[in-house]
């Protein structure tokens, strides 16, 4: 019997788990899944965090490329994205000064695709919890078709929101 045969009797959500752990004021979220627990792994890690907007005047202090990979001092390149919805809401509310922005940094193990879950989930959790959040994701099923992958992604989000609502 293969993984797909087992899934005939199991829903995707029953094979995906999401644990939210508070670490001081921050949160760690572990999203894992697969028919067997030995399929659970680390495929991608994303951290979303708030930063007050800063204008960097010294070019040597931060070197940013077109794809938003930043290097400061002796750091290694890290993929970063920002959320500008907070900035838009900040300006619409008539605020002046330096608003906060949410940045995400993601590390992907070569050959893995879990960043499509870890990065937006870290961003969503940081927005809702108003703090730094790290999401570790690792989900594995054998030989899935495109529509099954879509179902797994949908189920993972459902499990994520359910776990996040408990933390709120």
UniProtKB/TrEMBL annotation:
What superkingdom does the record give? Bacteria
Q: Which InterPro entries match?
A: LpdD_chaperone-like
Q: Where is the Prenylated flavin chaperone LpdD-like domain?
A: 100-163
**What is the protein name given in its UniProt record?**
Prenylated flavin chaperone LpdD-like domain-containing protein
Q: Which organism is it from?
A: Paenibacillus arenosi
């Amino acid at each position: 019997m293969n993984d797909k045969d087992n899934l005939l009797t199991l829903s995707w959500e029953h094979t995906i788990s999401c644990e939210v752990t508070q670490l001081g004021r921050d949160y760690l979220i572990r999203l894992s899944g697969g028919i067997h627990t030995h399929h659970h792994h680390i495929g991608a890690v994303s951290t979303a965090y708030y930063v007050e907007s800063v204008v960097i005047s010294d070019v040597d202090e931060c070197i940013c490329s077109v794809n938003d990979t930043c290097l400061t001092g002796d750091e290694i390149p890290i993929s970063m994205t920002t959320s500008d919805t907070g900035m838009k809401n900040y300006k619409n509310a008539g605020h002046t000064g330096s608003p906060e922005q949410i940045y995400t940094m993601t590390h992907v193990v070569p050959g893995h695709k879990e960043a499509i879950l870890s990065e937006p989930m870290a961003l969503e959790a940081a927005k809702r919890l108003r703090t730094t959040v790290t999401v570790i994701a690792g989900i594995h099923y054998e030989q899935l078709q495109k529509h099954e992958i879509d179902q797994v992604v949908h189920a993972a989000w459902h499990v994520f929101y359910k776990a996040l609502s408990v933390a709120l």
